[in-house]
């Protein structure tokens, strides 16, 4: 069986990769993927801590499933927004979104 520390290290690496991608990327699609990476790291933590603290309970898994459902809805809405931005500006870079303010 894999030790819990290894899974938590994997989750921390995923979280830091997501934060780094969110801070450095210019494309809205890459930013969305970074947010999804951070949400998946949180889901791994839910499952690991549930297994560590309450081995017979399923609360962490339910939180993870709920988070996955919210992430799917968030992705659908974000992609719809990106499509509308692309139709207006022919570009989905974050720097170009200031043109839509006026």
Please write out the topology.
Elements: H1 4-24, H2 28-53, H3 59-89
Describe it for me?
There is one protein chain. The chain is mostly helical and 102 residues long. The chain has a domain at 27-97: Helix Hairpins. 76% of the residues lie in helices and 0% in strands. It has helices at residues 4-24, 28-53, 59-89. Helix 1 (4-24) runs antiparallel to helix 2 (28-53) and helix 2 packs antiparallel against helix 3 (59-89). The model has no long low-confidence stretch (mean pLDDT 88).
Protein traits:
single chain; mainly alpha; 3 helices; Helix Hairpins; 102 residues
How would you summarize what this structure contains?
The protein is mostly helical and 102 residues long. It has helices at 4-24, 28-53, 59-89. The relative contact order is 0.13.
CATH architecture of the domain at 27-97: Orthogonal Bundle
* Cα end-to-end separation: 57 Å
Per the CATH scheme, the topology name of the domain at 27-97 is Helix Hairpins
| Helix/strand order | HHH
